[in-house]
Structure formats: C-alpha cells, structure tokens
Design a protein that fits this description.
This protein has 154 residues and is α/β, with parallel strands linked by helices. The protein has six helices and four strands; from the N terminus they run βαβααβαβαα. The two termini are 13 Å apart.
Length: 154
C-alpha cells in the first residue's frame, strides 16, 4: 500500500482539494486497494471542519466527492505512515521539516511535480479567492504523482 498525504496550512482549501482529486483519480484507475490518500494542515485553526466553501463548490462542479474529509493537524506520527508528503508551499515545507521525526526524503513540493509551470508554490485560495487556478494545478499535479506511483507499483 502506498500512502499519500497532502499538506497545506489550515487543511480546508488546497490539501483537501488535492486529497479529493487524487482519491477520485485513484478510484478511476481502480487502485483503491493499492493507494490511500489523506490530507492535513500544519496549523490547528480548522481541525474538524469540512473543506472551505470554495473548495466544495469547485469539487461539486467537477463531480468529485469530498465525503469524509475533515481538517486535521499534521502529526509527527504521519512521517511513519506516509510514503509521500506533498506540501503546497515553502512555508508548509518549513513547518513540516521542523516536526520531530521529519523525513525530507518523503517530502515533495507540489509544484515540483509541475516543473514547467511558472509558479513555484501553490497559491492559497483562502487569501486569493482563486479556487479555479488551484483546481487546475491540483488536476495536473495529481496526474503526475499518480503516474509516478503507478510506475513504482509495477
């Protein structure tokens, strides 16, 4: 089983969007028994909350389920559970690497999945309001990550 964790600041916009999109792609590929996906935030402000309204509206528009997704805070034990920890920006990277047990070899900056893109960090739609832009990035990056994992599974 390959375990993937998406990480952002509050776990209500970017990382739950990535989790939902990746779960959808994994299901479409028939790999639910081989790949598990989760998300977390480095902060605790939204623990227990469902994804942000902007994230939910976008996922609804694309008929992607976010059922069961609730914000949670990243824990040191996540380094033992997850093969991939995909962070959305440099601030997330810094926060994650400060945790006890941090393993940088399991960390990926999301935008490193899309090296041809001009952006180096995933913008936070909580502040920008541009959920569509983030959705497009998540779609493309999750495709790249899923292909990478599929190669490992073969």
């Amino acid at each position: 089983m390959v375990n993937v964790l998406f990480v952002c600041l509050g776990n209500i916009c970017r990382s739950p969007m990535a989790e939902a999109i990746m779960r959808h792609k994994v299901k479409e590929a028939g790999l639910e028994n081989e790949i598990q996906v989760d998300s977390a935030g480095t902060g605790d402000w939204h623990v227990g909350h469902i994804p942000h309204e902007g994230t939910r509206e976008l996922l609804d528009r694309h008929e992607i389920s976010y059922e069961g997704i609730q914000a949670r805070q990243l824990a040191s034990t996540d380094f033992e559970r997850f093969d991939y920890m995909v962070v959305m920006d440099d601030s997330n990277w810094s926060n994650v690497t400060k945790l006890p047990g941090a393993k940088e070899n399991s960390l990926i900056k999301f935008m490193n999945l899309l090296p041809e893109h001009e952006l180096k960090e995933v913008p936070d739609p909580y502040y920008t309001g541009n959920f569509d832009q983030v959705y497009e990035l998540m779609e493309a990056g999750c495709d790249v990550l899923l292909n990478r994992i599929r190669k490992e599974l073969n």
